[in-house]
Recover the amino acids of this structure.
């Protein structure tokens, strides 16, 4: 979201975005890191605090708005995206943020999520994916891997998970990105990019639930395994990863493969990331559940499409330009009328 | 032979035919002209749920009834005086409601062997003499006449044949002495791009009119004098249009942008259609992905300071239920219109019912009181929608407006209100002057109404968080304290109870005490009023009151109810208001409960009253 007026910006510090409510997540929960990074980066975004609204559904993650000293609305399970749509259309000058979980945004609220993405309303969605239902004490979620043993699946879950990023791509999202709770600087950058994108920004954040799904993303956060398992995307840069950035993604006959830079391959063989390429972004999104590939983080996809809320304003302006501003008196007296003396 | 002109007070016509025969259009045109002629009118469209039921089938019959009069009338009427049956199925379905001695006009061309069998006739009733004993039958080959009228035009016969409804309309215009010009100018507008269709339809209309004039079949014309309506400028109005205008009026009077979020559903969709055409009134319409999103989007819009509205029908209102609880908890102003239809489940989507009263009053988890106002007539939908907005904004609460399929699609001549006379709607958003020790208190209430402040995003210093979790009185912070929860439950209830102060003293039609009180709500008002008038003419001690607000109920209702020996509550449900009245006032109210997808006729009410009075 980038259209908030930028004249005479107020100067804020992290404290200005910290509310007086005590934070109630379990000690060590990944949500803390996300909150901290958000509070740190918001003063840099140049938005007047009173123009910021955080909307959430229900879940551990959805407690988020209580801790941000902005306007906030902790709503009902799954509906944050729909409520935020109402907020943004009602006042397009606001900077609207949705905080949702994998259950909230993809299970009970999945319908609203895909339709928000399709409409491309200028809203920033932060989806905290811990691959579990935290608040209800540990049932598997639509992003849990097959065979997951949880309270509701003592013999292992049977249903296949979906991948938030491929879902977003399929729903015609105009901005698709991912970050990880432990990667503080990267997360700040992703939040900033989300804000700058005009249209719906979909940012998935891998978040560790210490209590019910600890270590779900360990391979991406552990020092030893991180480099091999994370593909950090940057627009215009080659897709390199691994300890010394010696591994790369190469396309051979439109099929991705992993190459080692050295005797057989050079950096020129490595695919260059292009945020505007739908096919590449879709391919990258699909890496998530393919064990051989590293999991991508960063901006997978970002294209310019006029946001829905701008079009709403345009259409009203055009209608007013065409008819003049409506008056109820005129409207009441329009059509076939007759006088009774 | 000279034709005679007879004066009558009141006529009820029903146009019935196949879905493809254009009966709604015919009825609509007759209504428009009749309104302009100056009669009082009440109409009832009755169309099938299937868009394309098989041609000629009983399920595919579509009808439109109009009652017009030189007197003040309240309903579309029970039995009809004139039935236009364009095919055998229409005859079969509607014949029983034609008065004995009534006029039956049929298009013989569609009484083919196939159509007759389809409608379940062994022989042609127009030829076997089975109808003449009961009705005044006019069997006319309308299709042939319109084909002849357009024989010199280069149009496919099928297209010409489709103008036969205009023939029927023209004939009725002649019989009831009304001008054809309004319809002609309407045709010219409608088919502006197809002059040949204007020509064919106008010829069919004239052919019908001339048929009455020149043939010797129709010897009597009927005059219905102008009704003695209060002076002023009138228009014809249907309920869904009136609701939409009421909302736009409230938005203009409150100086708020109107935000409408909804999902299409019969019979409420027209509100979405109408409002989406009124963008130049600064109206935002949002066709959401489902009713839940319709409802939640308006919660977002209300939080942001718009006049937020949704409309739906029973199944959609059910989906909105959870979010309505949030609206109650968040104490935000918004209006929810339920255009009731036959239920449960998909039920009878195109038919009327009053069975969602309990849903409006109680259909939520927890103690979640929502004010409920119900429209009585198509034109009244304007005032109820307006009033609902006013109350929502003043008391910071969601408000239900109940209309129904009959009101939504029915019409009446409507005295256009003077906008300046509408009660003002004042909205004051919170500002920093309300801070307590520099702290904004989102749940610090207005002492008189108990409404909380409306603090919308964009105001520096009022940043605050609300939500569906129970909140501490005043601060709005999350609170699990039992005493606080009890107090907040009382506060939310008391705030709604306070709306009783907005309700004027109850208007009793008839004596202040007596043998029988008929109590109505919603669209049954007209039948109850007509029945009461008839009973009073027989010197029976029957009075009528109509409830506009169902929650809260008027202050004086309890003391009025006990002044009558009997209380009768006719409703198109199984006795929902009856149960409330019995529980609330310990009065032995009896119900007249007919759930047939159509308004309760005054005849049934009169019967029931006589039965209860032992006469
Ligand atoms: C209508 C409704 N159904 C069920 C619940 C119970 N519930 C609350 S949160 C939740 C799942 C939350 O999971 P997620 O969105 O992943 O959030 P997390 O707690 O993991 O952050 C459920 C099932 C509810 N609050 N409302
Ligand atoms: S249950 Fe899991 S997600 Fe919820 S607060 Fe605790 S650690 Fe965080
Ligand atoms: Mg989760």
């Amino acid at each position: 979201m980038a259209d908030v007026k930028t004249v005479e910006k107020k100067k804020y510090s992290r404290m200005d975005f910290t509310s007086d409510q005590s934070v109630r997540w379990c000690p060590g929960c990944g949500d803390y890191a996300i909150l901290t990074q958000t509070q740190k980066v918001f003063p840099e975004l140049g938005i007047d605090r009173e123009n910021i609204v955080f909307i959430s559904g229900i879940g551990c993650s959805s407690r988020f708005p209580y801790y941000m000293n902005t306007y906030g609305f902790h709503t009902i399970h799954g509906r944050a995206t729909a409520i935020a749509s109402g907020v943004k259309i009602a006042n397009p000058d606001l900077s609207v943020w949705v905080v949702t979980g994998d259950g909230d945004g993809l299970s009970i609220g999945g319908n609203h999520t895909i339709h928000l993405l399709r409409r491309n309303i200028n809203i920033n969605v932060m989806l905290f994916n811990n691959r579990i239902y935290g608040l209800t004490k540990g049932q598997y979620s639509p992003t849990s891997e097959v065979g997951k043993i949880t309270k509701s699946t003592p013999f292992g879950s049977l249903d296949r998970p979906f991948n938030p990023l491929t879902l977003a791509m399929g729903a015609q999202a105009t901005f698709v990105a991912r970050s990880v709770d432990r990667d503080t600087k990267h997360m700040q950058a992703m939040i900033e990019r989300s804000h700058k994108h005009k249209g719906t920004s979909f940012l998935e954040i891998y978040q560790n639930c210490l209590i019910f799904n600890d270590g779900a993303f360990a391979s991406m956060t552990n020092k030893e395994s991180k480099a091999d398992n994370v593909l950090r995307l940057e627009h215009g840069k080659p897709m390199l990863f691994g300890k010394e950035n010696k591994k790369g993604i190469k396309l051979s006959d439109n099929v991705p493969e992993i190459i080692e830079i050295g005797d057989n391959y050079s950096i020129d063989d490595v695919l260059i990331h292009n945020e505007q390429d739908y096919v590449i972004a879709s391919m990258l999104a699909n890496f998530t559940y393919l064990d051989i590939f590293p999991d991508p983080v960063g901006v997978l996809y970002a294209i310019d499409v006029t946001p829905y809320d701008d079009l709403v304003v345009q259409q009203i302006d055009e209608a007013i330009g065409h008819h003049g501003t409506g008056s109820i008196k005129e409207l009441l007296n329009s059509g076939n009328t007759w006088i009774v003396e | 032979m000279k034709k005679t002109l007879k004066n009558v007070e009141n006529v009820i016509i029903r146009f019935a035919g196949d879905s493809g025969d254009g009966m709604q259009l015919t009825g609509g045109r007759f209504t428009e002209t009749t309104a302009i002629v100056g009669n009082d009118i009440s109409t009832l469209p009755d169309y099938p749920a299937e868009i394309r039921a098989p041609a000629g089938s009983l399920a595919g019959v579509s009808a439109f009834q109009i009652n017009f009069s030189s007197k003040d009338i309240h309903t579309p009427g029970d039995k009809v005086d004139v039935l236009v049956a364009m095919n055998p199925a229409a005859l079969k379905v509607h014949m029983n409601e034609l008065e004995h001695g009534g006029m039956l006009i049929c298009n013989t061309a569609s009484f083919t062997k196939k159509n007759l069998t389809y409608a379940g006739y062994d022989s042609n009733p127009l030829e076997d003499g089975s109808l003449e004993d009961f009705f005044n039958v006019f069997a006319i080959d309308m299709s042939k006449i319109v084909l002849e009228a357009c024989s010199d035009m280069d149009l496919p016969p099928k297209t010409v044949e489709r103008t036969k409804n205009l023939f029927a309309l023209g004939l009725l215009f002649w019989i009831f002495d009304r001008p054809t010009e309004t319809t002609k100018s309407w045709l010219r507008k409608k088919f502006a791009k197809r002059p040949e269709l204007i020509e064919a339809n106008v010829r069919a209309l004239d052919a019908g009119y001339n048929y009455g004039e020149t043939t010797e079949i129709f010897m009597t014309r009927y005059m219905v004098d102008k009704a003695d309506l209060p002076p002023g400028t009138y228009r014809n109005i249907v309920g869904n249009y009136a609701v939409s205008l009421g909302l736009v009026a409230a938005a203009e009077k409150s100086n708020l942008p109107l935000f409408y979020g909804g999902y299409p559903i019969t019979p409420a969709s027209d509100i979405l259609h109408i409002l989406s055409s009124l963008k130049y009134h600064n109206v935002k319409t949002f066709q959401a992905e489902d009713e839940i999103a319709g409802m939640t989007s308006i919660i977002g819009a209300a939080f942001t300071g718009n006049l937020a509205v949704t409309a739906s029908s029973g199944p959609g209102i059910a989906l909105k239920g959870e979010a309505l609880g949030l609206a109650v908890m968040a104490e935000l102003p918004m209006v929810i219109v339920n255009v009731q239809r036959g239920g449960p489940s998909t039920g009878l989507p195109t038919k009327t019912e009053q069975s969602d009263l309990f849903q409006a009053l109680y259909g939520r988890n927890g103690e979640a009181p929502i004010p409920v106002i119900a429209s009585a007539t198509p034109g009244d939908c304007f005032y109820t929608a307006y009033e609902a907005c006013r109350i929502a904004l003043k008391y910071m609460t969601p408000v239900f407006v109940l209309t129904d399929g009959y009101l939504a699609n029915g019409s009446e001549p409507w005295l256009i209100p003077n906008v300046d006379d509408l009660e003002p709607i004042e909205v004051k958003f919170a500002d920093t002057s309300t801070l307590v020790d520099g702290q904004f208190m989102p749940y610090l209430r207005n002492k008189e109404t108990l409404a909380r402040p409306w603090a919308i995003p964009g105001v520096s210093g009022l940043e605050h968080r609300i939500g569906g979790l129970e909140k501490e009185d005043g601060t709005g912070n999350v609170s699990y304290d039992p005493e606080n929860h009890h107090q907040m439950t009382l506060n939310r209830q008391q705030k709604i109870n306070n709306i009783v102060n907005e309700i004027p003293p109850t208007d009793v039609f008839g004596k202040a005490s007596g043998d029988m009180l008929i109590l109505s709500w919603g669209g049954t008002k007209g039948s109850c009023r007509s029945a009461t008038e008839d009973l009073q003419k027989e010197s029976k001690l029957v009075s009528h009151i109509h409830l506009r607000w169902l929650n809260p109920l008027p202050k004086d209702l309890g003391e009025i109810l006990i002044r009558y020996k009997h209380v009768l509550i006719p409703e198109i449900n199984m006795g929902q208001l009856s149960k409330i009245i019995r529980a609330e006032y310990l009065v032995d109210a009896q119900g007249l409960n007919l759930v047939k997808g159509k308004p309760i006729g005054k005849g049934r009410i009169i019967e029931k009253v006589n039965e209860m009075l032992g006469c």
Remarks:
- Residues 56 and 99 of chain A are 5 Å apart (CA to CA).
- Residues A 58-61, 77, 101-104, 128, 130, 132-136, 141; B 322 surround thiamine diphosphate (ligand 1) (CB under 6 Å).
- The mean pLDDT of chain A is 96.
